[in-house]
Amino acid sequence: AEAALKEFPIRQLPRFAPWFPNDLYRLPFKPKKQPPVISCEEAEELKQLSTPSEYV
Amino acid sequence: MTTLTRQDLNFGQVVADVLSEFLEVAVHLILYVREVYPIGIFQKRKKYNVPVQMSCHPELNQYIQDTLHCVKPLLEKNDVEKVVVVILDKEHHPVERFVFEITQPPLLSISSESLLSHVEQLLRAFILKISVCDAVLDNNPPGFGFPFSSLSPSEISQLVLRKSSPYRACQPLEIKPFVFQDFPWILADEQDVHMHDPRLIPLKTMTSDLLKMQLYVEERAHKGT
């Protein structure tokens, strides 16, 4: 337990910085298609359908 | 210790396999943690030896798979700077951006056969950080997600920044055309990228012989406005 109370060397915390900051002159790509809309009703139906399979 | 170049043993493909599998798990978990979709579509799975939540909605799963299927050849060629999961509000302005910055060292020092399992341990740390990141992020705007409303079609989008992509309007990705036949990509809008005075929240940095990766969140200062 004494060893745990002793001073120990502390490393300097590195300062966070993004490696590749945003650059509006170099725009990225994105999928043209948009992700699906999922309503709460559809989610509920899916949950009911998938629940029994968890116990198979 | 043996030093190999990235071309040896097809390490580019190994890294692309590892990364695309990880990104798939991470995207599902981000959607769950940030309540982008109703929690009813998610099921608990075990990945990297920790519990994660994965969607069981076929159309959403296909969308994520198609996206990452297109990213994989770029990862293989070490041609990706970052992959960003953008969460948009109803006006299609970003409220949060989960930024995965990726670099691959040109030389690999193969010191042990446990290299891959070591990387898996490091990736697990990213998953654990994503699981708890809601504690350091502000809530998203009212009516934004579960359980109060269904979402507008473009509330998530994935952006990929290539190392060699100068600003050229609507330049298609130059990879195998058949991959993109049913899943085309377009140049992102400025509004997808630009966020006024964002708050930067670092989540995790890893350094390994195989790859270096850093994850942080850019959060809009006033989400409700």
From TrEMBL, chain B:
Q: Which GO terms describe its cellular component?
A: nucleus; zeta DNA polymerase complex
**Would the keyword Ribonucleoprotein be found if you checked this record's keyword annotation?**
no
Q: Which SUPFAM superfamilies match?
A: The spindle assembly checkpoint protein mad2
Checking PANTHER family in the record gives: MITOTIC SPINDLE ASSEMBLY CHECKPOINT PROTEIN MAD2, MITOTIC SPINDLE ASSEMBLY CHECKPOINT PROTEIN MAD2B
Record key words, sorted: DNA damage, Nucleus
Matching entries from InterPro entries are given as: HORMA_dom (IPR003511), HORMA_dom_sf (IPR036570), Mad2-like (IPR045091)
* Cellular localisation: Nucleus
Q: Which GO terms describe its biological process?
A: DNA damage response
Q: Which organism is it from?
A: Oreotrochilus melanogaster
UniProt-recorded name of the protein: Mitotic spindle assembly checkpoint protein MAD2B
Q: Name one Pfam family in it.
A: HORMA
Q: Residue limits of the HORMA domain?
A: 13-217
